[in-house]
Amino acid sequence: TQVTEKLEEVVMIWIKQIKQVLVESEQIRREADDIGPSAELEHWKSRMSSFNSLLDEIKSSRVKKILSILQAARSKTLKQWKELDGNITIAANEAKDNVRYLYTLDKFFRPLAKASPVTMMEQVPSLMNTVRMIYCTSRYYNTSECMTSLLLKITNQMINTCKTYLCEG
């Protein structure tokens, strides 16, 4: 029982740390007003990396051994652990899915940043079609919050590109 209690303490520390990671990942991001759409892709890539690392750690043999000991001891901490494990898996899947969809837009981001206003406008129909496809098919990114953020960043990039064009001209 002493071993079980020590292991439960360790798992409770892990649970507290994982909850903190999940809470921080759900907080509203503070971003510059003029940030472009590439930042959206970078955000989700970073989040995917974080959650994948966390999943790798959770699936390590060390953690599995501790969990199996607690399971044999019928520990009540496992209920909380399983719920958090599921939440982390969902967060990792969301990040992976969002990165996959945002990569389809990546081919528009560079031309959007470097083009003249005329060339940029030629890209807009294809870009909007791709955004529409993401909205219609994505499991996670098709919320109004995500779409609003993405469209705001696309608009910011278009404005910045036009400003640069006007200043150079």
Automatic annotation (TrEMBL):
<dbReference type="InterPro" id="IPR026983">
    <property type="entry name" value="DHC"/>
</dbReference>
<feature type="domain" description="Dynein heavy chain tail">
    <location>
        <begin position="5"/>
        <end position="167"/>
    </location>
</feature>
<protein>
    <submittedName>
        <fullName>DYH5 protein</fullName>
    </submittedName>
</protein>
<dbReference type="GO" id="GO:0045505">
    <property type="term" value="F:dynein intermediate chain binding"/>
</dbReference>
<dbReference type="InterPro" id="IPR013594">
    <property type="entry name" value="Dynein_heavy_tail"/>
</dbReference>
<dbReference type="GO" id="GO:0005858">
    <property type="term" value="C:axonemal dynein complex"/>
</dbReference>
<dbReference type="GO" id="GO:0051959">
    <property type="term" value="F:dynein light intermediate chain binding"/>
</dbReference>
<dbReference type="Pfam" id="PF08385">
    <property type="entry name" value="DHC_N1"/>
</dbReference>
<dbReference type="GO" id="GO:0007018">
    <property type="term" value="P:microtubule-based movement"/>
</dbReference>
